[in-house]
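Hi support team,

I submitted a single chain yesterday and got back a structure, but I'm not sure I'm reading the token output correctly. Could someone confirm the output below corresponds to the sequence I sent? I've pasted both exactly as they appear in my results page.

Thanks,
R.
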Amino acid sequence: MNLPIDFLKSTLDLACVIQAIPAPTFNEVRRAAFCLDKFHELGLSDVQRDSVGNVLARLPGSDPNARPLVVSAHMDTVHPLDTPLEVRREDDRITGPGIADNALGLAALFTLAQMLKQSQVALPGDLWLAANVGEEGLGNLRGIQAIVDRFAEKPIAYLVIEGMGLGTILHRGLGVERYKITVNTPGGHSWVDYGEPSAIHEICLLVNRMALLPLPQKPCTTLNVGVIRGGTSVNTIASNASIELDLRSEDNASLENLVEQIQSIVRQVQRPKIQVTIEQIGKRQAGYIDEHHPLVNLARDVLTDLGLEARTDIASTDANLPLSRGFPAICVGISYGNNAHTAEEFFLTRPVLQGLAQVYQLVIDSWRKLGQ
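Hi R., thanks for writing in. Yes, this is the structure output for that exact sequence:
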């Protein structure tokens, strides 16, 4: 379909407005208030904020017996509250922290509602739009979990929108487990108590042992130490140190095997005067639908009709949650971009119109292609 160019301009402007509202994970309240007002402004039904902070609204369907469709975009970003949120608008792109992930995705959610209302298309079932919390980092998908807990198997599908990744159909959810490992020792003075165990030394040795673990390439499995903390001063034998560990795999069994190896290393490090604890701080289960599932075929056909090359892939997104429970779900992108989670994150502006047409057509065709 050919969308009016006005939809492009309004979506880009809206993405910049949303991006300027800080929304780090666990602190999405200001952005949620904006989303609540925006849903009201669009004249949607049942506008509400749920118990975990998600903002939802409904576009009523024509058939009360038809199953609903849920379309979501996450509100939170990885950037702390004090992050400068300037954006640069150029002829072909917009750059700034969080502009694509996920200010653009959220803007597309509102534009979708505007397009549907303007076209006056009659959807068979209710369309629920959700701006959700807790997608990034240690949010542990708590926002989409609340949504899936609420709707369960009732929707014909869950459609997740991200700002980047146009042309990619994410129909597989990457399994993720995250742990905090802490080492405690008596500590002491770097000269007087030399020879006493240092928590920093011990945690570095532990990290080295983990880094030497052989990881399978098929199914692809990864290990990353993303945060390390510890110590008091340069002339102190550290009494405390910790790391935050991110483990991922395409396969739940391979992920659990890696977790067992990490736990074994932790047990082996334990010695007199050295206490090591491991605490799970995050978990996202893997899940998938077949690459020829009707929902994936629908997304592929829509992209092909738009002249875009469609590819299927795996990632860790909000789609993980419904996929892990056996519900049909995919995640799609609105444009192309790069440098995610940095101050130089950007998306290309011209493809946005195709991305908007994609989600519009996905919604329009869902009941006909997926059944009611």
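A quick pointer for reading it: The mean pLDDT is 96. Let us know if anything else looks off.

Best,
Support desk
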